[in-house]
Design a protein that fits this description.
four-stranded mixed beta sheet; mainly beta; 40 strands; 22-stranded antiparallel β-barrel; 649 residues
Length: 649
């Protein structure tokens, strides 16, 4: 790196470190103010254990007969939170005789979130301190953190930290295609072609690839990846203090990034109003093509009894390379920049009866000096029907008030068999189907079968009118062997690919069709274990494809990583890790059988966590100086310095 960059980095480290030890908004708030024993959050090899939490807390108002300071009127209870969020078995451990009976009655009006273990809700106990207020004092004290349940405050912050620290990295492992990331920049050789939903709204584009749409939104949401659907949603945050996370990057090739996320309950002083603000700015050269963006997101969520209202705004202004478009518009040789603008406004109402949403979106692209736009209005209604251990979700979408689509999600459990089935149908040329049946033979051994079909059609406008139709079908069987710290997932199957490209334009007429069936196999190994102060995480995914004709997908793909974390005293940690992504050579169907050479990307990082809320990182990208990554000329070895800073206000 240049001397100027090094000097800048040293200056940031000095002043940032000075600020940490001179301000009390980090350790003072999280340790001195709360001053309670740290709540332990257990992390298993494949999921985070999240204890039960209070979701909605209703104030308990005293009448005139209770004399004294209301801060002294606190009843302590231990309750069992059932998987369906109801409570039972209320036990008093801190008693006020005149208030115990009232407390047991009032706690029934509170709402809870059950414990989550390995992705499933389970029964667990929760300790609650119920505070009572006079009518004239509650308004003054309801937002004061001194009178707030400090144990729940700390638990909520730590849980949020754990989820945010792990979800982004883990998701990229679980997605089916080879995806590499450089900070918040994502790249992949293929569209992963899963259904992407943002807070319940289906995110689609005729022009932008799914990996590009994912890059814009993933950093600021929790995810749930099931079947062929990736659902990004706002995490619940019932805490009246502001939580802010800043991620700042400086690096070679003029790489600068800033991701800022701020969230707060009691937003603008309004009770039960949750506000979330996100900002993502990127500028720099990736794969020798400049990319820059300034994306803004604002979400407001209001709870009113059993109703939940959502209002969202998303604004995107960016310049991207042409290879970030969908396959039918992609051009690996064309380094011309594509301009993208997006304006999106969403409203959603969730009740016990149904989920209803409305969204209007205006997105435009400037490709090869031609401008394309897509304006879409989407209204949907979604209804959950639950019977015993079976759940059916029915969804109807209406696009631009005339085009309908239906979605059915049927999942559940019968003894040791778990099933998940998703059908989406818009028309004969646009539908998808996913089905997975999972049978547990033993707590450490399971077998499954999986079917995933997709048919997609779009029209390409680049000089001439070109119709592009694609079909994909994957069927496989597999097994999983695992224990508390290691897991092996192996599957084999058949992949069928069909593409048809045609044009009836007066200046260009052709008809091309391609079909191929391939044998595919995949294995995934994950390891997560702690040895006293040292935690080791290892991940390896390897896939193999054998083709009857041609080479339209890589024969070998691999992605793997290993991370070491050494825990020191006073919340200090040292982290080091290395990752590798390999993609074999193949011929790209979307590029008229253009030959794509094999690529091999190796990255490494070193991080120092100085407090729970502050971490500095040094990343080395393309450690082995590879020439190509996914068919595009890659940058030589380069370095990024970044700071992650979380704080409470």
């Amino acid at each position: 790196m240049s001397k100027l960059v090094i000097k800048t980095l040293l200056t940031i480290i000095f002043f940032t470190t000075l600020n940490i030890y001179s301000n009390e908004n980090i350790e003072t708030i999280s340790d001195s103010l709360l001053n309670i024993k740290q709540e332990i959050i257990k992390v298993s090899n494949d999921s985070i254990y999240i204890p039960p939490q209070i979701r909605v807390e209703k104030p308990c108002i005293l009448d005139a007969k209770f004399k004294g300071d209301p801060k002294d009127f606190k009843v302590g209870m231990v309750i069992d939170v059932l998987p369906d969020s109801s409570i039972t078995n209320i036990r008093i451990f801190k008693s006020i005789p005149d208030l115990d009976k009232i407390a047991k009655k009032e706690i029934q009006n509170w709402k809870f979130t059950p414990a989550l273990k390995k992705g499933k809700t389970v029964l667990d106990s929760l300790q609650v301190i119920m505070e009572f207020f006079y009518d004239d004092s509650f308004e003054e004290t309801k937002l004061d953190s001194i009178f707030y349940n400090t144990k729940r405050l700390k638990l909520g912050i730590e849980t949020l930290n754990q989820i945010q620290n792990q979800h982004y990295h883990n998701l990229l492992k679980k997605l089916p295609h080879n995806i590499i990331r450089e900070n918040y920049h994502l790249d992949s050789p293929f569209d992963y072609r899963n259904v992407l939903k943002i807070d319940g709204f289906r995110e689609t584009s005729k022009y932008a690839s799914e990996i590009h749409l994912l890059q814009n939104r993933l950093p600021f949401y929790n995810y749930d990846f099931q079947g062929n659907q990736l659902n990004l949603s706002n995490p619940d945050y019932f805490i009246p203090v502001t939580f802010t996370e800043a991620y700042m990057v400086l690096g070679d090739y003029e790489m600068n990034q800033l991701a800022l996320s701020m969230r707060k309950d009691y937003f603008l002083g309004v009770k039960h109003l949750y506000g979330k603000f996100d900002f993502l700015a990127q500028d720099g050269y990736w794969t020798r093509t400049r990319e820059k963006s300034a994306n803004f997101n604002l979400d407001l969520i209001y709870h009113l009894g059993n109703n939940k209202f959502f209002l969202g705004t998303n604004i995107v202004n960016q310049e991207i390379p042409q290879h970030k478009l969908r396959d039918s518009y992609k051009n690996l040789n064309n380094l011309e920049v594509v301009e993208e603008k997006n304006r999106e406004y969403s409203f959603k109402w969730e009740s016990n009866f149904a989920l209803i949403g409305f969204q209007t979106r205006k997105r435009s692209f400037k490709i090869d000096n031609s401008k394309y736009s897509e304006n879409q209005k989407n209204i949907f209604i979604e209804k959950d029907i639950s019977l015993s251990q079976q759940n059916l979700t029915i969804r109807i979408d209406n696009y631009n008030f005339d085009d309908f689509a239906s979605e059915f999600n049927f999942n559940g459990k019968i003894n040791q068999v778990t099933h998940n089935n998703i059908l989406y149908f818009k028309n004969d040329a646009n539908f998808s189907f996913f089905s997975k049946i999972f049978y547990s033979l033993h707590k450490n051994f399971s077998i499954y079968s999986e079917i995933n079909k997709l048919e997609d059609y779009n029209t390409k406008f680049v000089g001439n009118k070109v119709n592009f139709k694609e079909k994909k079908a994957l069927s496989s069987i597999g097994c999983i062997v695992k224990n508390s710290y290691i897991s092996f997932d192996t599957k084999i199957g058949n992949c069928s690919i069909s593409q048809k490209t045609s044009s009836n334009d007066s200046t260009l007429t052709f008809n091309y069709q391609f079909e191929n069936e391939n044998f595919v196999a995949e294995e995934i190994v994950s390891f997560n274990k702690s040895f006293q102060q040292l935690n080791i995480q290892f991940f390896h995914q390897f896939s193999y494809s054998h083709f009857k004709e041609g080479l339209n997908l890589p024969k070998f793909q691999n992605k793997s990583s290993i991370d070491f974390c050494y825990n020191l005293e006073h919340n200090n940690k040292l982290r080091i890790g290395i990752s590798n992504a390999f993609c074999g050579d193949y011929f790209s169907l979307s590029e008229n059988f253009q030959y794509i050479p094999q690529s091999n990307q190796t990255d490494a990082y070193f991080a120092i966590q100085l407090t729970k809320l502050f971490q500095i990182n040094l990343n080395v990208y393309n450690l082995l100086d590879s020439n190509y990554i996914f068919g595009k000329k890659s940058l030589s070895r380069h370095y990024n310095f970044s700071v992650i800073w979380k704080f409470l206000n």
